[in-house]
Amino acid sequence: MKKNTIFWMAAFVAGMVAIPGQADAMHLSEGILPFKWAALWSAMALPFVMYGLWQVKVRGGQDVSFKPLLGLMVAVVFIISCMPVPVPLAGTCSHPVGTGISAILVGPFISVVITAAALLIQALFLAHGGLSTWGADIMSMGVMGSFAAYGVFRALRSMRVSLGVSAFMAGVAADWATYFMTSVELASGIRGEEAFVPLLIKIAVAFVPTQLPLGLLEGAMTAGMVVLLYRKRPDLLVKMRVLSAKEAAV
Amino acid sequence: MKKIVMVILLLAVAPMMATGAQAKWSGVDETVVEKFAEEHGRAAVDPLINTDQGDLLLFVFLLGGALGGFMAGYCYRRLMETPGKGKARTEGPETEAKAELGRPG
Would the pLDDT of B26 be above 50? Predict the structure, then answer.
């Protein structure tokens, strides 16, 4: 009975989000933010990217297979964050962010680097986001998405919550945190003389009908990937420091 | 299994129903980001590199694929082999993790 309920709930959520149509995305486009705000978000994102690059160098030196894995993760985040999903409840489309899985597997700082690379390719060649808003998009998707996911995952694991549930919540956190940060960036950039908080709430609420179900989809997707890895290749999760050897052997 | 087939069928039929009900599925960049930005006097501008011209995007993908493939091939040894050993890496954290789990490498 319980299994049945879970199955149909999952089917309902999948049905809500999987009806296709014309699609677009969340990244802040070229010209949306005034220059000073675009510069500020870029400056804030820079230390995260630099520290992430240093971590890539260190871990790449320790393990020769790390860099190919990193390339693969960039491809995963690039594809997931380009993937428009229609949400029939809202009649609009949006995309998951993919930083949940990358933060769980390689840690939040390296996940920021991965996101920065994916966003740069999208901004350069797909008109998805923009070069002037690259820093702002790194802050929302890379920094907020990765750190929210990693924080939630680690906190739940420390409370002995199961791997699948922890990964699900991490995926949800990555998605919702990204769109909340996008709302903050947009509200602060466009508000002019208007009060910040009411505008932020208005923008965040406008994202809710689309991102509420999409966040759940992202959670399910993240949990699916982590659980699949656990079942097929637990040694990889140990290698990526997601699980201890003792946990993987249980 | 029956349930899974039913869900797949429902998902396959749903688009047809939805297409009739809703002519346009705008992205949240239009319905939220650009809408609020325009209301406050900001508008998106054309991207600095506009690949949405004819088959230019296909060419860019071709170029990217060729360049990426060349770089991966050129750096194959650095990517896949242990420095100084000249052979594919068989030892390391992955092998150690497998050994700890008692699984065959």
Answer: yes
pLDDT band at A196 (very low <50, low <70, confident <90, very high): very high
Chain A positions touching B101 (Cβ under 8 A) are 234-235, 238, 245, 248-249
Band (pLDDT 50/70/90 cuts) for residue A119 is very high
Tokens of B23: 């002519």
Please report the residues numbered 153 through 172 in chain A whose beta carbons come closer than 8 angstroms to any beta carbon of chain B: none
A234 touches chain B (CB under 8 A): yes
CATH of A35-244 among 3.40.50.20, 1.10.1760.20, 3.40.50.2000, 3.40.50.2300: 1.10.1760.20
Determine contact: A206 vs chain B, CB below 8 A: yes
Q: Give the ranges where chain B is alpha helix by DSSP (H).
A: 2-21, 28, 35-39, 56-74, 76-80, 93-101
- Residue A83 and residue A127: Cα distance in Å, rounded? 14
Residues in chain A: 250
